[in-house]
Amino acid sequence: MKRRNFIKAAASSGIIATTSLAPASASVGEKAKKIKWKMVTSWPKNFPGLGTGANNLAKLITEMSGGRLKVKVYSANELVPAFETFDAVSRGTAQMAHGASYYWKGKSQAAQFFAAVPFGLTAQEMNGWLYTGGGMELWKETYKKFGIIPAAAGNTGVQMAGWFNKEIKSVDDLKGLKMRIPGLGGEVLKRAGGTPVSLPGHEIFTSLKTGVIDATEWVGPYNDLAFGLHKAAKFYYYPGWHEPGTTLEALINKKALESLPDDLQSIVLNACKIVNQQMTAEYTTRNHQALDTLVNKHKVKVLKLPDEVLKTLQKLSDEVVSKIAAEDKMSEKVFKSFTAYRDQVRQWTAISEMAYLNNR
Amino acid sequence: MKRRNFIKAAASSGIIATTSLAPASASVGEKAKKIKWKMVTSWPKNFPGLGTGANNLAKLITEMSGGRLKVKVYSANELVPAFETFDAVSRGTAQMAHGASYYWKGKSQAAQFFAAVPFGLTAQEMNGWLYTGGGMELWKETYKKFGIIPAAAGNTGVQMAGWFNKEIKSVDDLKGLKMRIPGLGGEVLKRAGGTPVSLPGHEIFTSLKTGVIDATEWVGPYNDLAFGLHKAAKFYYYPGWHEPGTTLEALINKKALESLPDDLQSIVLNACKIVNQQMTAEYTTRNHQALDTLVNKHKVKVLKLPDEVLKTLQKLSDEVVSKIAAEDKMSEKVFKSFTAYRDQVRQWTAISEMAYLNNR
After folding, report:
1. Bridge partner residues of A58 (DSSP)
2. Residue A22 has pLDDT above 60, yes or no
3. What's the structural domain count of chain B?
4. CB within 8 Å of chain A, chain B residues 189-248
5. Residue A224's pLDDT is what?
6. N or C: which end of chain B has fewer CB within 10 A?
7. Reported ipTM
8. b or e along B328-348 (b: 16 or more beta carbons within 10 Å of the residue's beta carbon)?
9. Which residue ranges in chain B fall short of pLDDT 50?
10. C-alpha separations of A350 from A74, A270, A273, B313, B354 in Å
11. pLDDT per residue as tens digits for the range A282-307
12. Residue A274 within any structural domain of the chain
């Protein structure tokens, strides 16, 4: 929907109330007054992990503020469509949104670095870059012109490479492969000769089952099991390569945030950090439980992509990611920071997490 | 110092003010009234990473509460000695403490599982167990009889195996090795024929330099570089095995917490979660910077413990950890939960973090 049509539709439908919009300026400095915020999301209602992460975020803000700031969550299409949340926060229709930054590459190519980069950073490394490596400052700079303040608000950890109906034995098997894989991962598959397809979540199962697509990525065991993907595909491959530590994001209308007293501003931004950690913990636990069910109950075969295929994907990923840097000044700046951090942190990770896991 | 002597000394010295002790009952429910809390710690003043983590925690609580709850941090020995903080919070001399749970094995053997276990959980897995795998509930149960509520409040990630003046080429080289290594790691070294030594931080450098000890573990590149350990030892070994994701803890006096209004209770507990994540981010970034300095500027040799040695250490670790379970009912319960989680989550980690890192 175009923005003008959207506003017209909203106005005529009356869905968007004209009260309690950002900034809640009447409440500035008046601690006793209750403030109401709307959080629009890109998720189906109560979607496990991602949607429930948004619910947790709203609950935390309401709870830590003692109800002085109440946040109500709207699932995709309740107030605005899944991919209209950025605009909604930018113009103040909603004070907050929960989604992922790679949805906004149309706004700024640089945005993609703050969600997931093929062969990029793990969840722990991503938090290192964002919180103590300069990433967060660049993210804020990227969204500044839209009047939006971003915050990391969830991380799924390593996502799986996906479900396949055809075994991938060599790079040749990627040629002509019709796979549901969005974003940068899709670009990489295209360069490898495959056909990336964009499909909303609810169409994936049937498309895979009926052979409209040969493969799909989704998230990991926890979400994949809930979706029943094991009933649609022959093989389950690992390891993931295209989303090694996907960061979810909260978008906050700058004026709305700045109209709050200092303590509530701190609560909003810090609640995002709590959800960021909590989501990784939840995925870690739920993924291992779901993997157990998939393998032992549903007899799912977990295979490995051949080294040669992974090497090719890595080479193509580097090409795709480098191309973003050439798009504009901001993208170049973010690319440089991200890759410099990755190239250095991998040396520490190699003798800490990686060495430990290989020896455990 | 014995507890009675401590109280006498404190009373005569007047160090411990009798005002604003826990519970801050005069302030219950009165939101306008400022509440003051003391946080005693086991760290030297502003100690990088761990001590600054405690400072961050106090700052966050003060900030999110809009100054309604002000927390003042005391370094080790300012109010109470480093290892008297548990008792101080238990009796309400201080409302909070920051330290690590393996210091309290004298109170409960089970406490050791909530800090670091040799060949145990990584930071990400530890958060999974604590927040969504039942660990936090068991931690609370362990401290219940002391009137203390615990919270995870920092994680260093994988710690290094340490600094050595003698190269370890086989298990035989561990025999007679005098190494500064506390806790469970020390127990394991003892079973391998070594001599674990307990030394406070400030004595390590000279002891290693003068040959009083042959080796020492400390934390990782960030803290090790600051301590100058590269000037005292010949070799730096990896990977770490004895503390794969050390969790720091906040201790909160139960009565003091419960005397706060609901929003402040939520702020205190959630501030701990923020610091928990922030510390890992900080260590991830600072460790990789410090490693670069150690290797490229100070020409430190990073070696690898032989597989045979690591296998022996793992076998001995399992024996030492299993022994804790036999100590009492609570320890057995925690041991069972911890090992069940570890045995399952490692399967997920193997096809996510570990597989990804090995292919990146």
Report:
1. none
2. no
3. 1
4. 220-221, 238-241, 244
5. 95
6. N
7. 0.90
8. eebbeebbebbbebbebbbeb
9. 1-31
10. 42, 30, 26, 20, 10
11. 999 999 999 999 999 999 999 999 99
12. yes
Cβ within 8 Å of residue B97, ≥6 positions away: B39, B40, B41, B42, B85, B86, B88, B89, B250, B251
Q: Does residue B309 lie within any of the structural domains?
A: no
Per-residue pLDDT of A320-346, as tens digits, reads 999 999 999 999 999 999 999 999 999
Report yes or no on B80 lying in a domain.
yes
Any chain B CB within 8 A of the CB of A339? no
The residues facing B251 across adjacent strands are B97, B150
B278 and A CB contact within 8 Å: yes
A3 CB near a chain B CB, below 8 Å?
A: no
- The answer to whether A168 and A310 have CB atoms below 8 angstroms apart is no
| CA–CA distances in Å: residue A77 to residues A40, A54, A142, A200, B351 | 9, 15, 26, 13, 35
SS3 A154: strand
- CATH number, domain with residue A141: 3.40.190.170
**Spatial CB neighbours of A39, under 8 Å, sequence gap ≥ 6:** A54, A57, A58, A71, A72, A73, A74, A94, A95, A96, A97, A98, A250
Q: Helix axis angle, B123-132 relative to A262-292, nearest 10°?
A: 100
Query: Which helix or strand (DSSP H or E) is residue B255 part of?
Result: helix B254-258
Closest alpha carbon within chain B to A347: B288
Question: In the 8-state DSSP scheme, what is residue B296?
Answer: I
User: Does residue B100 sit within a domain?
Assistant: yes
* CA pair distance B60, B46, nearest whole angstrom: 16
What's the token pair of residue A235? Answer: 């093989």
Helix (H) or strand (E) holding B347: helix B329-351
What residues have CB less than 8 Å from A258, skipping those under 6 apart?
A23, A265
Q: Which domain range does residue B250 map to? A: 3-157+245-285
Between CA B51 and CA B74 the distance in angstroms is 10
Distance separating alpha carbons of residues A354 and B356, to the nearest angstrom: 9
Place of tokens 């210091």: B103
CA distances from B236 to B196, B213, B287, B302 (A): 18, 15, 14, 5
Number of H helices, E strands in chain A: 13, 11
Residues 6 or more apart whose CB falls under 8 angstroms from that of A48 comprise A222, A223, A226, A286
Given the structure tokens 């950073």, which residue do they identify? A121
Per the CB < 8 Å rule, is B132 touching A64?
Answer: no
Question: CB of B132 within 8 A of CB of B344?
Answer: no
